[in-house]
Amino acid sequence: MDLNKIIPIVLFVIILIIGGFAFSIYNTNNKLKEEKAKLEDDNTRLLGERRQLQEKAARLEKELSDLKSRKEEIEGELTKAQQEKEELLTKYNELLKERDALVEKLSAQHKVSVQEQKPSEGVSVQPAGQEEYWSDFIKIKAQLEVKVDNLNKELLDTKNKLADLDKTNKELEIKIDELTKEKERLTNEIEFRERTLSIMSRDLVSEREARQTAIEELNKLRSQNVSLKRELVLANKEKMQLTNSIKEALENKDSLEKRLAEIDRILREKSITLGQLQEEMRTVVKGASPFVSKDTASVQLPPIVVKPQATATLKSLKGEVIAVNNEEKFVIVSIGEKHGAKVGMQLVVYRGDKQIAVAEIIEIRNEISAADIKEVLSGYTINKGDTVMVR
Description:
The chain is of the alpha+beta class. The chain has helices spanning 3-116, 128-286, 294-298, and strands at 318-325, 330-333, 346-351, 354-364, 369-376, 387-390.
């Protein structure tokens, strides 16, 4: 198979492989970006939920602290009420004892007064002092009974208050237990969220590192792709030059074959003429009359001229732009290794007499070179046919 047909096929296959690999990396990069965005959304949502849970936990802790304070206040009030209850009971017992003592005393005095009184003829006579005594006694007794009733009422109220306080205390204890359980649940949930967030953060870091590695690989592939494109462009240019050289060689071959055929024809004619001359000479030598035709006498051998090959003239380091790749920012110029071009050489691009750009040679072939575009004058673009000269 012809080498000129194999090279484009191989280059095409390489470009397809690189394109497929770059496409897979591009798809992987897009998937990583989508997963990263999803993880960031989940991270934001978890942070918001964590903040809400922390606020709720702080609020519950505050309520728990308030309830504990209220419980302590109620326990203090309960202790105080119990002390008041004990004091009232003690005072109540003392009053009962005083009442019993007064009742006994009044009973004894009543017996004594009844014994001393001896009514005569159905007429009872009571001294004025004794009536006042009984009147005072009845008043004191009524006051004591009222006081006892009041103490009984206060005692009953105190008992009711103590019962209410016991009920409130039990309700508060139940609520405190519920709040404690809620606090533990929220604490566990916060810890679970924190662990989940930590795992997701590590996964996100790993994915970022993988994404960075993929980006670096993609950049390497892009640079390799650019180099391959340049190589392909240079190979195509060389192929065109080789094709032109082969075409010129074939044309030269055809021209030489035609010239050789012409020379062969002339040589055959000259050989025939030479044979006739030899025959005539033999006839003259034998004494025969010479016969010379006008055509034979007038024939002269044309000089055979062989044109020497044109020697290569020395090329000056001046050429033109033969191809432009604006996407990758490089140009192909008609200055090559045989003209004296070297890698790193600075080229100035002219349009007419105006300098419009500066380029630097990065790769060299025999008759052409590839140069990176370094600077371009504002408002201008390098076009095919622009003149280039070495700075």
